[in-house]
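Appendix B. Chain record.
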Amino acid sequence: MAKVSVIQADITTLDVDAIVNAANTSLLGGGGVDGAIHRKAGPELATACRMLHGCKTGDAKLTKGFKFTSSLVIHTVGPVWNGRRPRPERDLLASCYRRSLEITADKGFETVAFPAISTGIYRFPADEAAAIAVREVTMFKGSRPTEVIFCCFDAASADRHRARPWRVLMRNTLAFDGPVILGAGLAGLTAALSATTGAAKTALVLSPTPLASGCSSAWAQGGMAAALSGDDTPELHAADTIAAGAGLCDPEAVDLLTREGPQAVRDLAALGAPFDRKADDGFVLSLEAAHSAARVARVGGDGAGAAIHGRCHRGGPRDADHRGPRKRPRPPPAAGRHRPCGRRAGRCRRRPGRDPQPPA
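Structure tokens predicted for this chain:
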């Protein structure tokens, strides 16, 4: 990790390999730090920036420093804070620091200086901006730069960058004393349901997207392969898998998955996963691909992923139909009302002037 220092100074006076400019999308100069850097570098900087054809918010581009004696200039465009939800400004500001550091690492710069991006006329909350800046710099994994300087315009900004500002990002944290599951795919939800069968009644599932919408489990169409029939064994399943893998499979991983597979399918069924079943309650198994025995348990043909994931998401069975709960049938309209909208005679906006139809 690079050495991080915080100073209060004019960024245009620093002797570093690169300085970061808090630019606008045109890259042609503006107020604040942007204007100061353009004035110090001279008109050649604007000419060079014009050749870059602007820059998107959250991105960064590199130019020479011209009248800066030793510095090149990394131009990055910070977000304008709008204060509404959702707030993509946080991600965009973080991207400004990441992209600038990536350019620094790519060019092999040893030292780089950052201003407090977006905290001027772009109105980004100064505390959060400092927290994001420090977090991105300390988490950056490149071997360059070896030193990062936060060059602050005033003492208040410098104090924010020094005072462990990542605490600001934790203001809306959730205090939870129970099982925490990372990931909301089939494995994650199964782990959450299993974790709540004992003393714990609630599990916290962390997912970057809403449940049942962004995981690969919900998109899977095939069934689950496991040695579930009386004439099949995990050893035979493992042998088929290794043969089909043609040297690409890890034998230990294959052995673990084939041994645990049958119980995993039974556990999912117990949790309400609606696998296709026989009259004797056994699993309907299909023979597919390189399997030498019928061992693929399905749900309604090709609906395994969505059905299993959705049932685990809901925490158990809701209905015999794996496609979800049946809709409650709409009652027929009362006598003297229209079937299309249920309004009384003469008041139907959809079919004005039509006589009401009696219910079937």
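Further analysis of this model is presented in Appendix C.
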